[in-house]
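Forwarding the complex inputs:
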Amino acid sequence: MSGPLLSARSVDVVYEPARGLRIWSVRDVDLDLAEGEFVGLVGESGCGKSTLGYALTRMLRPPARLTGGRIEFAGVDIAYLSGEQLRQQRRDGFALVLQSGMNALNPVRCVEHHFGDVLRAHARAGENWSRAKVRQRGADLLDKVKLPSDVLRRYPHELSGGMRQRVAIALALALQPRLIVFDEPTTALDVVVQRAVMETIQELQRANGFTALLISHDLGVVLEATDRVLVMYAGRIVEDQPAGDLLTGAHHPYTEALLRCYADPRADEVTLGGIAGSPPDLSLDEPGCPFTPRCPEAEDVCRQLDPPLEPLGRGAAACHVRARLATKGAAHAG
Amino acid sequence: MPAEVKPLTLDHVTKTFRTRGRGRVTAVDDVSFTIEPGAAVALVGASGSGKSTIAGLVTGAQRPTAGTVTYGDTVVDRLRAGGLRRYHHDVQIVFQDPYGALNPLHTVGYTIARPCRNFLGMSARETDQRVRQLLEQVGLTPAAQFAPKLPHQLSGGQRQRVVIARALACNPGLVVADEPVSMLDVSLRAGVLRLLADLRESRGLSLLYITHDLLSARVVTDQILVLHDGRVVESGGTKQVLQHPTDPYTVRLLDAIPNPFAA
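Prediction (whole assembly, two chains):
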């Protein structure tokens, strides 16, 4: 197939939690995911990364509302589909893995019931999911996420956090989706378990070739696992680069600041950076680049105009200052 | 300034819990260590390694099954109501979850004022001044603007600063910080950690820093204890242990950190 598997254009999501209060959570986001690509989406809490993930999988619930844009999945615009048509697209196409396995699983139902639920709800014509078949398929899926088949008879509270997260991943795999969105799949886990779950996700992605979008606040996790990283700030994508390039040098000052929040604890000298201030209030519709108040390089133009996401490096970044420096550099080189 | 900072000692401390189904679980197994006055000690380990149980034992919230916990001459595990209250004048805790650790119905000013009134017996006027001073110390300025706020009006990082201000209000000699930054965005962690380190240094108090994050342990502490299944498997200078770990579990913890920047 030619063209990206998922292509979003000018996606806007607004929360309207109360009369007269509008929060612009996702603003004018363009995004393409190529078939088989593993892409990361990082940003601080409240930057809109989960909301964007929900929008792309059409999981938004009021008070959140998709107010504009196109979301094409395998050539079909799913942005405004509903009912049976949306259900069909979901079955054939995409799945979402939620942050906490506990919240995603029904506490009064055993794991096997969850598999039966997914498989029967999306059964194709002529398919009959008997208990024996569900058990068989469930055991196969659990095996893929490295869990023994006796987990089928367990209830969520009997499983550890890491195991629950693996069950949630197995459920997402049940219908062999072409795209899986992982929303903070390891945030509630400790480092050792996180490492094991991330390794499983990466192995599955390589073996099955599905397209993956990994949403996380942890740039470290994302850089290790993904091919390409999207950095989000205040509802916008501010940088989009191959993961390897970000390691050697980011183009947006925000990404640079995020990178400075990490260090090797084994180094001789460890300095840990932070970002002073806090992200802007998204209910205020202020002009200019949203990072300006925290940005060490901000200029007058940054306060007036919201910079577009423009090609920079091998990817793109949304920064007036860096874009100008790059053109200057190119002119000098020329 | 704290009246007097005393050493905290755990001497062969064991804590077992009885559970339904699984019988007895040994959360802390024969652990001994001392925090010298003014030292910053990290206690690291994965979930379930017994870190938070040790926090409970040190603060007197839990009693050891065997062994003793002492702070100076005070035998912590024998303390009851009044003694425990006096002990909390000396030893305070900073909790992991800044959302759960503050009463949502009380203002920031009230929350920080309580320990001043309760432990230091300050007058209303003295308390007001102290609250302002503490808010400034933790970087919540202008103080007059933050004191009347309710927790829901603050960000996670700001709330954690309030929790720290409250812990420092009664001039404790030892602060136990149980995963104080794990719920915060990475961009805010450095600020809170630096605050903790600066306050410790300027006040000369001791710090027990509990975490599974080795990077933050490296930044705020000089000594480290690695805990695995309730036992201390490795201890020493933080830099030394992290650069030359000898226990396989410490190596595993180090390798598990997502750290694409490590060479």
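Chain A has a mean pLDDT of 90.
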